Amino acid sequence: MAIGSYRKDYPRPQFVREDWLNLNGEWDFRFDDADEGETGEWYRAFSGDRKIEVPFAYETKASGIGEEKFHPYVWYHRTFGVPAGQEGKRVLLHFQAVDYAAKVWVNGEYVGRHEGGYSAFTFDVTRFVKPGEGNAVVVKAEDSDSCTQPRGKQRWRKDNFGCWYVQTTGIWQTVWLEFVEPRHLHSVKITPDVDANAVRFDYRLEGAPSPDLKLTARITMDGELIKELSVAADRAYLSAGVELISEAREWRVEHWSPHSPKLYEVEFTLADGGKVVDRVFSYFGMRKVSIEKGKVLLNNQPIYQRLILDQGYWPDSHLTPPSEEAIIADIDHILAMGYNGVRKHQKIEDPRFLYWCDVKGVLVWSEVPAAYEFNDEAVERFTKEWLDIVRQHYNHPCIITWVPFNESWGIGNIFTDRKQQLFTESIYYLTKSIDPHRPVVVNDGWEHTISDILTLHDYEESGAAFLKRYADKDIITDNEIAHNKHKYALAQGYAYRGQPIIISEFGGIAFRSDKGWGYGNQVDSEAAFLERFRGITQAIKDVDYICGYCYTQVTDVQQEVNGLLTEAREPKVDPAKIREINLA
């Protein structure tokens, strides 16, 4: 099912080049609790006392260390070689994710710093490297227990509590090198227009633009040429659009959807006087997300979303997928149980996960990890990282909803606090300024401000009780009752505007155990589980104004034992029976 440009384990599947070097594997490693490494110039002569398997955080068994105690400063070191044939090219050092901040040195020289545990970043290290072997890269990762940094489900206390788990410190996604000509493509923003049967490419170039440079996009599907478009690369930023109508396809444009996840492949080439200086492979899906008359539409047709909450944790590697095969297996489990999408909860996932959701037709709600305090520092940190994330993942057709806030985390007084309300409004409009084509859910669960979808969290066990509570839509949307204990649908000062309504958390059923917790009463048997699961799922579907749901959750996560699968991905109940209920 993979597209033609697919490269196994390639860390950025939507922007693929041939010349790259994976730096994952064994690195030298050292804790630095006293923060003496910079003063001691460890970046010049590193003496690690441990080995670590990158990209796994030291807290995980997969790292080879497996120490869960928090350490605020950790150091990494490894050597690498520049392959022959790369002379004269720029050397780009990519980090897919380092939590929370990273300082980087190459061959003893300071390269730069990045802050944000869930966004990717790149340094051009050309002037620091030497040909051949013997180059050294050193990384200092800085973390904290501060609740002003976006941390999601990472604990800030000594031990796990509630639904917060062992922290993730340092490198936790792929580190890699890429070799490019001085003039090359920095990025391409791809925007489909289903109604116009067209696609637009917004290019950003690195290096001096020139009228002699030509940028070409060659669009294919299943190996068949659909369209080719060329423009003069005479500016650093340029745009070009093209209709996808093709006689070869009988004037039909293929749309992306869960039922038919058709992807167009595109090869971008940058040529200087006829000589290709850069070639990048990508893809896109022709799909449109819109809202009309209280429904979410996909490609102008209502879609009922059967989502499942997915926190993306593994027992031995935590936030880091243990392998690409493990990513695919998780997606296949989700599809086998009758779900058509995931709400990726409090995690920005590995791009390979999003790639396979693109390929397999899985809808994704992309939700950023939360901070847990509200002040100027938290606002600044959150805003910068969120905008980076939206830009970096914009091209994935599988992402159909952005979720910047969840359950008032980090905005605890939003129900009445105008300052916090305005913060969520600003994030809404900033998101829309980059991406006006997807719904934005502002404060998933309750106390919404200007959200495009009204999402409600409700862990009611009884289907009958649920139907009684939601029989009158107006008493929910007019804030006459608290739908979740003391929580209301809307923040004070905001009115319901006819948005679609989705129950975006429910269920959380756990089998009886003394090792963890679920929502409500625990059950003793598969029969009891299925009775409750069927009752509450069907009740949601029976409410005609609700247009989707999200069940909690795919797998157990540490002390949370309310998954449909164990942490080891073993089904607790027959997946076929879950599928039957979902599709009933």
TrEMBL record:
Q: Name one Pfam family in it.
A: Glyco_hydro_2_N
**The keyword Hydrolase is annotated on this UniProt entry:** yes
Ranges where the Glycoside hydrolase family 2 immunoglobulin-like beta-sandwich domain occurs? 184-287
Taxonomy, superkingdom: Bacteria
Annotated ranges, domain Glycoside hydrolase family 2 catalytic: 289-517
User: Which BP terms in the Gene Ontology apply to this protein?
Assistant: carbohydrate metabolic process
An annotated Gene Ontology molecular function: hydrolase activity, hydrolyzing O-glycosyl compounds
Where in this chain does the record put each Glycosyl hydrolases family 2 sugar binding domain? 22-140
UniProt keywords (A-Z) are: Glycosidase, Hydrolase
- Which InterPro entries does the annotation name? Beta-gal/glucu_dom_sf, Galactose-bd-like_sf, GH, GH2_Domain-Containing, Glyco_hydro_2_cat, Glyco_hydro_2_N, Ig-like_fold, Ig-like_GH2
Provide the family line. Answer: Belongs to the glycosyl hydrolase 2 family.
- Please identify the protein, giving its name as recorded: Glycoside hydrolase family 2
Say which species the protein is native to.
Cohnella lubricantis
Upper lineage: Bacteria, Bacillati, Bacillota, Bacilli, Bacillales
